[in-house]
Amino acid sequence: MTKLILDLSISLDGFVAGPNQTLEAPLGEGGERLHEWVFALESWRKPHGLEGGERNVDGDVVQESVDATGAVVMGRRMFSGGAGRWADDPNADGWWGDNPPFHVPVFVLTHHARETEVKDGGTSFTFVTDGAEAALEQARAAAGDADVSLAGGADVARQYLQAGLLDEVQLHVVPVLLGAGGVRLFDGLEPPPIELESTRVIQSPSVTHLRYRVTRGVAP
Amino acid sequence: MTKLILDLSISLDGFVAGPNQTLEAPLGEGGERLHEWVFALESWRKPHGLEGGERNVDGDVVQESVDATGAVVMGRRMFSGGAGRWADDPNADGWWGDNPPFHVPVFVLTHHARETEVKDGGTSFTFVTDGAEAALEQARAAAGDADVSLAGGADVARQYLQAGLLDEVQLHVVPVLLGAGGVRLFDGLEPPPIELESTRVIQSPSVTHLRYRVTRGVAP
User: Fold this and answer.
1) Cβ–Cβ below 8 Å for A177 and B193
2) Which has the closest alpha carbon to B19: B11, B27, B10, B7?
């Protein structure tokens, strides 16, 4: 059964982006720090069209996600950039280039209908205007036996979590405190509490990979 | 060298207490959930004057902290209760009873001078009115070769962290999302980012123990 998995890098104080996001610094001040651990990995570089790179336990975790993913769901701002001009223009181009790193069908949640874009290397962007559940349904169909990866942003993640549609969460916890003003992954969740079950912990010098199964969501 | 160690249970979304703290529910809605893992442990029950209990990997982590702690620093609301009448009365009695679970000297940060209280079982409460650094100095002197435990609350923890006085952080991450309105451990921290180094991860079915060394604080 295809699962919906949220997979994100996060600071120890719970931020997925730093304060003051701009076009030049789309991850906010200090936000790049959350992804440093991944840039040198062979398993990250290869889907990004880059040669070489390191093989280590972090790389294995990334490769596992790459191998398991048959489709991706993301928010519109993650497709086209979260700051500046792009944030306000629903028809903005994606910022992922001609050969995006996904190499599977991507379903973009948006309020504005537009044509599917087929890119090189197996990536396509399909724009879904009838809500989170519909996007997930299309992604599941595209993924076949593989899983659906929920790529973000934080608001989209919260939407799926709160709707009880998220099956697993993998957080790559980076040992830094980004401080006030950033984008929190878990913000504005409504009680009652959502229970999870820890299924795995993998530790490296640069990041701690925490994996959870969502056992009791808000709905249903 | 005596270290200052912050040791707290925290939800996966970063809360140390749930929303709507009251006298009857001092940890807020769902807040008790953060401490369920500890109540059944022999190493927690013994200092609380309770018999029996389980021995397991979580218990070892707790025992390690008990053994290492030579003095405690806490905020005034943690001494006398964080909600209702107690929160507003700087002369309120402590809520720790005649034989508190600390069994070492405790230094309480407050704005109101009052006499030291000596309790049964080795616990004393000394009230420090000249700031966080002075309280730490007194606690260090009392701890001898042992460490100083920073018991909370969140505002006091932030104060020490931001002042560059915190040496280590141990977070017991409980797999629950408490949702909006609770008390966040890391809230209102001012940039620049604070770097930590992961020194240990211990995993059990009910909680993940993350231990960090603070490598670069804000000051100095």
Assistant:
1) yes
2) B27
pLDDT, residue A26, reads 77
A positions 33-72 inside 8 Å of B (CB)? 33
Q: How far apart are CA B82 and CA A207, in angstroms?
A: 34
What would the pLDDT profile of B151-209 be if each residue is shown by its tens digit?
988 999 999 999 999 999 999 999 999 987 888 999 888 877 899 999 999 999 999 99
CA terminus-to-terminus distance, chain A: 18
- Phi, psi (deg, nearest 5) at residue A101: -80, 5
Q: Across the A/B interface, how many CB contacts are shorter than 8 Å?
A: 116
Give the one of B178, B179, B208 whose C-beta lies nearest to A210's C-beta: B208
Looking at residue B41, what DSSP letter applies? B
A38 Cα to chain B: minimum distance (Å):
17
Q: Where are the domains of chain B?
A: 4-216
Q: Which of B14, B19, B29 sits opposite A186 (nearest CB)?
A: B14
Question: B173 and chain A: CB distance < 8 Å anywhere?
Answer: yes
pLDDT surpassing 90 at residue A77 = no
- What is chain A's mean pLDDT, rounded? 90
Task: Report pTM.
Answer: 0.91
C-alpha distances in Å from residue A53, one per residue of A12, A103, A193, A206, A207? 26, 19, 41, 16, 17
Report the chain A residue with the minimal C-alpha distance to residue B158. A179
Complex-level ipTM: 0.89
Q: How many CB atoms lie within 10 A of CB B28?
A: 23
Domain B4-216, CATH among 3.30.2350.10, 3.40.50.2300, 3.40.430.10, 3.30.750.200: 3.40.430.10
